[in-house]
Specification:
The chain has two domains: 224 residues, no CATH class; 29 residues, no CATH class. The chain is 63% helix and 5% strand. By secondary structure, the protein is mainly alpha-helical. The chain is globular, with a radius of gyration of 26 Å.
């Protein structure tokens, strides 16, 4: 094997190892958020904050992707990459806080297995199926899938009869686009096709794989939160919460099981203690009555 081939294999191993470390770090943080009840309550309401961090992570990733000076610096590139990774992981907290540990782990490893299969298939495709030379057909294919996904996403919102099938089609379309990109990137990382990734862009390659994984994994939270196939109804042993306080989709989080808060004049609180000194036993009454 020549020196170029050895460098390319070393680059590929380093890229996949970096991606594995990033994925493991993300899983560790998400498990902590899912386990700790205080973290679930805090991050479960971080809709705006997590949305901002997600947009910020995307902007920083674009800068990192198109600015070669940042990527080529040995120290700044790692600092930039760590910030992007943490912002991406943090932006998922609001979703993780509303799911269960079995759901999170099951879909995490399923998506990771899907990514691994796409990487293996992409690396072992015949040279006649060089995806790096098929950019135009891949673009058209992705565009058609995006059109279909947009239609079924709107149908999911406005046509209740199509729930959850419309979202399933939407998810399949977006996942198909991401899997195609994963296979394409696998070929550029391997470096035996028409387009090769630079040997100095290990971090960029790992970040691209991680963000593709994030997109695929984020779509599964619809099933994790609303369907939860892998979590039984009497699930307690991995959580500090009970079913009444730990529901993933509470109807009204501020008033527990009450669907609608009654007006103030309909609340009647009676807290009286009756002391009959001549009685053999005292009658203690502490009642909350609702008209």
């Amino acid at each position: 094997m020549d020196a170029g081939g050895r460098k390319r294999k070393k680059f590929a191993r380093k890229t996949y190892l970096t991606f594995a470390i990033i994925s493991a770090a993300a899983l560790g943080q998400w498990i902590i958020v899912c386990f700790v009840e205080g973290a679930r309550k805090i991050f479960g309401s971080f809709y705006l904050v997590n949305s901002v961090t997600f947009v910020l992570a995307g902007l920083l990733f674009l800068i990192f992707m198109f600015n070669k000076n940042v990527r080529s610096h040995r120290i700044y590139s790692w600092i930039f990459a760590i910030i992007i990774i943490e912002l991406g992981i943090f932006s998922m907290y609001v979703l993780v806080a509303r799911t269960w540990v079995p759901e999170m782990l099951a879909y995490y490893f399923f998506c990771l297995l899907l990514m691994t299969a796409a990487l293996i298939i992409g690396c072992n495709l015949s040279f006649s199926m060089d995806l790096t030379q098929l950019i135009a057909p891949l673009f058209i294919f992705s565009f058609i899938l995006f059109l279909a996904s947009a239609y079924f996403l709107v149908a999911h919102v406005f046509y209740p009869a199509m729930v959850p099938y419309a979202f399933l089609v939407f998810e399949i379309c977006i996942t198909g686009v991401m899997i195609t990109n994963v296979m394409l990137h696998a070929q550029t990382i391997k470096g035996d096709r028409w387009v090769q990734m630079s040997l100095d862009d290990c971090l960029l390659a790992a970040l691209m794989l991680f963000h593709e994984f994030l997109v695929i994994y984020a779509l599964t939270f619809y099933w994790q939160i609303n369907i939860h196939y892998f979590t039984s109804s009497d699930y307690f042993w991995l959580s500090t919460s009970t079913k009444s306080s730990h529901g993933t989709t509470p109807l009204n989080a501020d008033y527990d099981d009450y669907d609608v808060r009654p007006p103030g004049d309909e609340w009647n609180i009676n807290n009286e203690t009756s002391y009959d000194w001549a009685a053999d036993s005292w009658d203690l009454s502490n009642e909350l009555q609702m008209k």
